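Example 3.2
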Amino acid sequence: MQINSDLSQRVVIDSNELPWLPSPMAGVERRMLDRVAAESGRATSLVRYAPETSFPMHGHPRGEEILVLSGTFSDDSGDYPAGSYLRNPPGSQHAPFSTEGCVLFVKLDQFAPLDGEEVRMNTRQARWMPGLVAGLSVMPLHEFESEHSALVRWAPGTIFNRHRHWGGEEILVLEGVFQDEYGSYPAGTWLRSPHLSEHKPFSTEGCMIYVKTGHLG
């Protein structure tokens, strides 16, 4: 199975328009954004757990990154409400479940080989830092070598400088509407821009995005 597997191509998907597809476990469904195999290897997805759903113990050969979008996600290490950011390093394993149900943004098998950091972060309690232009606030999530992940909050009317993405850029719009010269992207939109792409982003009404750069070289 190949879904948006060519990292040299720009991709824009309104995930709200994608169907929820069943996973191998009853009660767990997915909206697939990119994927290189049916049930193994690199994958980026939205994942929905129905209430009282569990997944069996399994490992992550090249790591797992999770942003909890709604509900509460749980595993052997604890309970993680909406706003939680998790990184399970290469070689880790767990048996996830959700008592009340949840929706997750999940990236599988995409860690750099030497990136072994485990992260458990509640972004609803973490500190926002000033961005590079007025109206922009940044919450760093993780960085390793050229890869940087963050939440970025745009006040209404914020305009950023035209810039180039060394190693590419990936965005999930979490709230509001994110924009650039190529279009407008409401909450739920996933964008992937390749190595050396460039744009001039802005937000007329304001927004919050998850953004990762430097990982698509």
